[in-house]
Amino acid sequence: MPEMGRQVSRARALTPPAAELFGRQRELASARELFTATRLVTLTGPGGVGKTALSEALSAKLDRAFRDGVWFVELGAQRSSDTVAEAVVTQIGLSAPASVDAEEQLRRHVADRSMLLILDNCEHVLPGCRRLVSALLAASTELRVLATSREPLGIRGERVVAVRPLEIPPNHRVLTADELCEYPAAAMLKARAKAVNDQFEITDRTAAEIAQLCTYLDGMPLAIELAAMRLRSLSVHELLTHIDDRFALLTSGDPTVAPHHRSLDALVRWSYDLCSSTEQLLWERMAVFSGSVDLPTIRAVCGLPPLQGTKLLDALDGLVSKSIVL
Ligand SMILES: Nc1ncnc2c1ncn2[C@@H]1O[C@H](COP(=O)(O)OP(=O)(O)OP(=O)(O)O)[C@@H](O)[C@H]1O
Ligand SMILES: [Mg+2]
Predict the structure, then answer these.
(1) Which atom of ligand 1 is nearest to the CA of 123?
(2) Residue 2: what pLDDT?
(3) 142 burial class (0-12, 13-18, 19+ CB within 10 angstroms)?
(4) pLDDT surpassing 90 at residue 291
(5) What is the average pLDDT score of the chain?
(6) How many angstroms is it from 28 CA to the middle of ligand 1?
(7) Which site among 27, 45, 89, 214 is 20 to 30 Å from 307 CA-CA?
(8) Distance, CA 56 to ligand 2 centroid (Å)?
(9) Confidence of residue 247 (pLDDT cuts 50, 70, 90)
(10) Ligand 1 within 6 A of CB of 22
């Protein structure tokens, strides 16, 4: 067996060093607390909300708690549930002898180790993750698993931390620039904008427009990141005037970024493709709503064939569990 490093293993060699994490104190505390009582914690939430960023921050905080370290496995590139175990073997640096299958090799490896295994982006290979995690937790008493997924794994004992968008400033009162930056969404926008334009500042005069922009972006970190890139060449005022077409405007040409994070359009497409055909139909019908909506209204507006009765409830349940309807 090759010598194992304690270094967190990363599939994405081009990932820049971990950036500052804004907000998330509650989620960090909650996930750490849950690991005292359970061995599988799943961070769920819609695409771009910050599950991976949170898992990276957690891995740094928890590193010393595990004798055999924290291992980060990125599953975004896997196309089939059948290759999950092999991906883990490769990414944690085990060599796979042809005589032993990958899952068995991992079972033996984790058996007497105290380690945290992070499985990132489980949603599109969920059955494979479910199978592997169940087998590994049964093979070891000390292993802990942190999964990120748009949807829970659905394993007994799993505890879920729902990752929500970043807190946005209130719209009903005018804030000073300092007050504004106490809100994680605004603080992140400022940091990301400054990274591409060192002249960028938030002043008391521009605070109201920044607050409006954060609200418009729903506090979603990926949208904030894409919008901040536009502040390289546009003022906040100009961005707000042009942002009506947020799908066209919020794009990035950065080749080091995962393809589904290069635009809001690609992100939504990735989520849509993970849905069943009835879930896709309900999603299309629900697109007429903005903001909160109750079940009787959903039934009245979307419950036409083939989505009557329990079919509608099943599809809605699917969209909620996949973090599309919050
Ligand atoms: N709290 C935060 N502070 C700073 N940056 C953040 C924060 N949350 C997310 N980001 C950044 O926003 C972008 C999107 O976040 P991330 O990749 O973690 O989303 P995700 O929920 O894992 O999305 P997906 O489901 O598509 O994998 C990343 O570039 C990430 O670094
Ligand atoms: Mg992710």
Answers:
(1) 25
(2) 38
(3) middle
(4) no
(5) 87
(6) 14
(7) 45
(8) 10
(9) low
(10) yes
Taking every pair of C-alpha atoms in the chain, what is the biggest distance, in angstroms?
68
CA angle 201/205/211 to nearest 5° reads 75
Q: How far is CA 5 from the centre of its chain?
A: 27
Cα(268) to centroid(ligand 1), Å: 15
What distance in angstroms lies between residue 222's CA and the mean position of ligand 1's atoms? 6
Tell me what percent of the residues of the chain surpass a pLDDT of 90.
64
The pLDDT of 35-52, averaged and rounded, is 95
Q: How far is residue 175's CA from residue 225's CA, in Å, rounded to a whole number? A: 22
pLDDT range class, residue 3, cuts 50, 70, 90: very low
Ligand whose nearest atom lies closest to the CA of 185 = 1
Q: Which CATH number fits domain 25-162: 3.90.1150.10, 3.40.50.2300, 3.40.50.300, 3.40.190.10?
A: 3.40.50.300
Q: What is the pLDDT of residue 97?
A: 67
Q: How far apart are CA 180 and CA 167, in angstroms?
A: 11
pLDDT-derived band at 42 (thresholds 50, 70, 90) equals very high
DSSP character at residue 59: H
Q: Is the CB of 53 under 6 A from ligand 1?
A: yes
Q: Which atom of ligand 1 is nearest to the CA of 261?
A: 26
Binding site membership of 230 for ligand 1 (Cβ less than 6 Å)? no
- What are the domain boundaries of the chain? 25-162, 177-263, 275-321
**From the CB of 165, is ligand 1 less than 6 Å away?**
no
* Reported confidence tier of residue 267, pLDDT bands at 50, 70, 90: confident
**What are the E-state strand segments in 96-228?**
116-120, 144-149, 159-162
